[in-house]
Specification:
The structure is a homodimer. By secondary structure, chain A is an alpha+beta fold. Chain A has a seven-stranded mixed β-sheet with strand order 2-3-4-11-5-6-7. The first copy, chain A, has a three-stranded antiparallel β-sheet with strand order 9-8-10. The interface between A and B is large, with 76 and 77 residues.
Chain lengths: 347, 347
């Protein structure tokens, strides 16, 4: 395991994205977004993604200098055309559109089509929380057979990992950020396990024959992910597909089989009650939850978003651990595109 | 087990609600709502609730002739004051408000406070689907210690069972209706197991010390329900609490410890794409899901809402099975309020 500072990782990712055709602001934003995921402890959504994003640029699936635009809009809604830009650009733009409309109209929703991988959904939900809004972000659809999830009671890759995020602003506390895939694990976690050559917990995947497996390699040989919570996670996954992908028309504005889209909802709190009254109520409620004694094996009850905030503080101090295989692939990608200034690990 | 027609059960429930003070239209609506849950196979939300609703009227928690009103509104939002009416009245009113506003503004949200038990959430979500909208209904807050759910990693009854429902209209198919509690099971299932002196499946409850238990008695000795899907269900439960209860101010407009509220969102589909194009896309997607081969032990992959639609068709034909104990309690409640015309079971 190697250790790098956030600035080091951001710098190398930025240089790679710039070298494969992204204007400076886009390269900086996508690199920053990925490294934020590393800081928050979600390495599956961190710089491990860089070689895959570059591959998608080579395949023409990501258009590195594209920018999103509005296809259709009303005062409360928009269909945002990602134009196959980096998904991070499309999602940030979509959240900005929702925020701008919700400032005027109190509630606003947008559906993003032609949408690449947007990274960690919580990032965009929190943009709304910082504006005194409740934010909801749902990604749905089918991007590639590599994130295939079986429907409850079925054997087949029929659904994506279709994640949800909600962010709710608090007062003196950090915002509540719920952010999870509707599969038991995100496919990115399998990438991490595969990179570390480690086994998975039981009950996460089936192999190509529908047999339970703990070997991440089995997933990449035709296996499938299982939805979390049985029929409940399956129901959420299907709703995410219809909301994220079909509402905006991603299945016709996209290119089969890449039909992923993202739904974003912004809800201005002070249309319901004064914002400071609400955030004080949230603080109070979170305080109640925090007083619940920990279960055996736990140190304390955590608020959704709290583990990420702690990881971020720690990793800003101590650096971000990166497996050698992940680093080697980053270096290989960098060299292929003439990026020669590579940082030395801090540990 | 006794069998009654839906009309018979509706008639007796209607007569009881009328006898304890509900105007005819309210008595009819609440009775109809409960019997619809029986038809759909969710007997825990059916006429078994009648004696408990009557008890709440006696306790002053349900005001049987109250009607909901709007406390505060904008063109896209409303805070609905349930005025401690039957929850079904408040939720139906809230969905109607959201639909009316979304017809004009494309997106609308309302938060219901002073809200009693609303029954099956899917009922209100489907009202929106029938109007060419995507409907979302979330109930959150704490109504009684008897539905206490532990936060992930904690030992304490800190959350309610906080359910979510989504409804999405299809074309030739029935709407997709996802409707589930964020606890793994309802407390009613524990009551049944306790009465039968049978053990529970593993992973449903903790005892008062936070240890996993399969003995339903442990729940009633200070134990707690677990959220579904570990930290993911917990995150959804907490978001439901903040969205359902705190957004509208149920914790101050309600009466501690009864702080339950309901959040309703309506999203007009044709603001995003033509409705018939969307519903055709949904039909197509559901058709794809239905082609997935069943897993061992399953006959077919079901769409959320499909089990309920099948149960409804069957029970309209064959009647609704009611355990004798449930019927006896209904009869006792009816006699107490002078309701003398009671149906004879059809089987």
């Amino acid at each position: 395991m190697l250790t790098f500072s956030a600035a080091q990782l951001e710098s190398v990712a930025q240089a790679i994205f710039a070298a494969v055709g992204a204007p400076g602001d886009i390269a900086t934003h996508v690199a920053h977004s990925l490294v934020e995921s590393n800081l928050m402890g979600h390495d599956s959504h961190g710089v491990i993604r860089v070689p895959n994003y570059v591959l998608r640029v080579e395949q023409g699936r990501i258009v590195p200098d594209a920018r999103p635009s509005i296809l259709r809009e009303t005062s409360t809604t928009a269909v945002v055309q990602g134009n196959w830009a980096y998904g991070q650009s499309a999602a940030k733009y979509g959240a900005e559109v929702a925020i701008r409309k919700a400032r005027e109209a109190n509630v606003a929703a947008c559906a993003i089509v032609q949408c690449n991988h947007i990274g960690r959904l919580g990032e965009y939900a929190v943009m709304m929380a910082r504006e005194g809004m409740i934010g909801m972000v749902v990604t749905g659809g089918f991007s590639s057979p590599f994130n295939g999830v079986a429907p409850y009671g079925g054997v087949g890759r029929a659904l994506g990992t279709n994640p949800y995020a909600f962010a709710v602003p608090a007062g003196t506390r950090e915002p509540v950020v719920a952010d999870f895939a509707t599969s038991i694990v995100a496919e990115g976690k399998l990438q991490v396990a595969r990179a570390k050559r480690s086994q998975l917990a039981e009950g996460l995947i089936l192999d190509s024959q529908g047999r339970p497996s703990t070997d991440p390699e089995d997933f990449y040989q035709g296996g499938m992910l299982l939805p979390f919570g049985g029929h409940k996670g399956y129901a959420l996954a299907l709703v995410a597909d219809l909301l994220g992908s079909r509402l905006g028309g991603a299945e016709i504005l996209g290119e089969a089989p890449h039909t992923v889209g993202t739904f974003i909802l912004a809800l201005r709190i002070d249309a319901f009650r004064p914002l400071d009254e609400f955030t004080a109520a949230v603080d109070g409620r979170l305080g109640e939850i925090k007083t619940v004694p920990p279960a055996p094996g736990f140190q304390e009850v955590l608020i959704p978003g709290e583990p990420e905030a702690r990881s971020r503080a720690l990793r800003l101090q101590e650096g971000i651990p990166i497996p050698e295989e992940t680093w080697d692939k980053l270096v290989e990608t960098a060299r292929k595109y003439g990026v020669s200034t590579l940082p030395a690990p801090t540990a």
